[in-house]
Amino acid sequence: MSKRSVARVIKSHRQTEGGGFVVRRPLPTRGLEHADPFLLIDELGPVTYAPGEAIGAPDHPHRGFETVSYILDGAVEHEDSAGHRGRLGPGDVQWMTAGAGIVHSEMPGAELLANGGRVHGFQIWVNLPARLKMTRPRYQDVPGSRLPTAQTDDGKARVTIVAGEALGARAVIETHTPIVFQDWTLDEGGRVELPIAPELRVLAYVFDGAVRVGGREVTDGELAILGEGDAVELAGGRGRLLLLGGVPHREPIARYGPFVMNTEQEIIQAVKDFTSGKMGEITRTAQVG
Ligand code: CO
Question: From the CA of 202, how far away is ligand 1's center (Å)?
Fold first, then answer.
């Protein structure tokens, strides 16, 4: 196998999102609009909120791509215009295909809001190819207990698999195009070499400690963009990272806030469809008392 080496390292910057919560964002960043098919990588926190302080993202639309929420600490309550509602807790994943359009809210869980507490997680945007941008919205809510895990024989490299496969374990989430989305923890002396098909673009975002990716040390808050090859080597250091891979669509991208399409015309249409209510709205039952 030919190992991929690191072509570029990007330091994340801090950014305010939604109702005012702070994220670490390595993508997009100055000089890198996207890493096709990945459009955005946001790490929420880790932050510890005082009672009454937790913030979320109130009602907003999406069209043309997928949002993946992966919660490590805290809880998010979500509702949307298709009538779904639910709660994501530590370890849980929501893979939402916004497709033709959806309006949703992502808010802190009630007891997190009341009592305060720690919040840590990710939201990642995966682009859809032109032929799927107007597909029916779809949800895959997977509790952490259902996410496959695996480890090397010595136990020094451990993985939770959201998408793709590693060490003989395969994801339960279905993706429209081949995607790798894996949470790896490496201990000192741990090492793993993973085959990843050459047509996938591969990224590694380290969010704790330091990990050697393709022989190069990548530290907390850094995103490594890997070059060509058919395998990825991860080695400890003690650290934790998200390993992301996807087949580039190589299509034009027109992006405006929560809409990601192929042309300006399609963006104008998306704004019209949202403002005229065609993406729906969230129906909330009035609280009694
Ligand atoms: Co959203």
Answer: 24
Question: 131-152 pLDDT, tens per residue?
Answer: 999 999 998 999 999 999 999 9
Tallying the residues shown for the chain, one arrives at 289
> Domain count of the chain?
1
- Residue 3's nearest CA partner among 189, 226, 244, 191 is 226
Q: How remote is the CA of residue 51 from the centroid of ligand 1, in Å? A: 24
Distance 258 CA to ligand 1 centre (A): 8
223's tokens: 């995103």
pLDDT single digits (tens) 77-125: 999 998 889 999 999 999 999 999 999 999 998 989 999 999 999 999 9
The answer to whether residue 183 is domain-embedded is yes
Locus of tokens 């923890």: 185
**Domain presence at residue 258:** no
Ligand 1 centroid vs 68 CA: distance in angstroms?
9
Residue 184 lies in a domain: yes
Return d(Cα 38, Cα 246) in angstroms, integer: 8
CATH of the domain at 13: 2.60.120.10
Distance 57 CA to ligand 1 centre (A): 7
